[in-house]
Amino acid sequence: MRGRARLFPSLAAAATALACGITLPVRAGTASAVGVGAWAGQVHEYANPFDPNLDRAPTESSLTWGSGWSGGIDQIVSRVDGREATKGGGRISRASGAPGPATYMNLVAPSTFAAGTVIACQQVWSGFTSSMPYTLKLSNGDPGDWSAVPATFSGPGTATYETIQVATPGSAADRARIEYSQTAIYGSTAYADFNDLLILPDRLETIPTVTATATSTTWGSPSSLVNLTCESGWAKHTGLPADVSVTFTLNGGESETVKAIVFYSYENVSATFTLRDAADNPVMDVVLTIEPQGWALPVYFDTPITTTAFKMDFGYATTQVAMREVIFMRQLAAPIPEPAAGLLLTGGALLLVRRRGRRA
Questions:
Q1: Exposed/middle/buried for 67, CB within 10 Å: 0-12, 13-18, 19+?
Q2: 48-202 maps to which CATH number?
Q3: Could you give the 3-state DSSP secondary structure of residue 233?
Q4: Which residue among 7, 8, 137, 155 is least enclosed by CB atoms within 10 Å?
Q5: What CATH homologous superfamily does 206-331 map to?
Q6: For the segment 229-246, what is each residue's pLDDT rounded down to a tens digit?
């Protein structure tokens, strides 16, 4: 690899892909995390409600979009992830002047799922001349009128936008909808893009104030691995072979109990490493094979792990290594339902209260 060549296609290649509406194929590579040592058998990939057999091809789901548009959106929910649609995200397009018309994407799973946590990213190419603002919604059953369904979150869709968003609806759903109030333009074509959508059953929140340091860096920054963006990251591809690792310090070095970790890798770069805890004990072996697109891999611990830090240990690396983002998450308590009867503290006294049903 020279410079950024394998991490980032040339501008000319990107422009050609945009103009031709190229969709990269789903691949049969490997994305896995296996618990080791004391954590053997305790680390698992989260189930994917849109791809129950985890074969990275969500053929079990119904994926549709606005009339008059063409393209493919399966990679939004396949966990086959790319930084831009030209590198493996979801994209639909049609001939249009500026600004591009409104459209939508519907993603319907084969059965109802628990939407404990929703993690999503839209990365917008810098060459677009207008924006593609989006709103993501969830529903359990076809609502008919989607305008009445509240948004889980929204994004501005401006050129270079790359924020990873996290929400915890904690509700049941069987479908997601991505709505675009307008679409972006390149030449005489309108585009609607989306990178990836992860829906996990546990209610999770990100660990605050994670810092990252690396043994050495060729491109990017280790701090870019923990800034909740889906474009930037960190790479080491010069001065090899060498021992390479990245250390993540959680919440200023305070002990944290981690339930889940989400790994995002780069296209055209493999990432094979052992994740270690603050005491340097091995926790899991992660394999993200080299493919035309990257991976989005969400994993969880049966029993949450308590530590102050993690180390991504690539060992004695002989070829380039790179990662795009790592999200450390802790579990939120389940929402407490309002009781039918309970105790209310008021004015320093405990009162027994009972909810009454509405009278006819």
A1: exposed
A2: 2.60.120.260
A3: coil
A4: 8
A5: Galactose-binding domain-like (2.60.120.260)
A6: 987 899 999 999 999 999
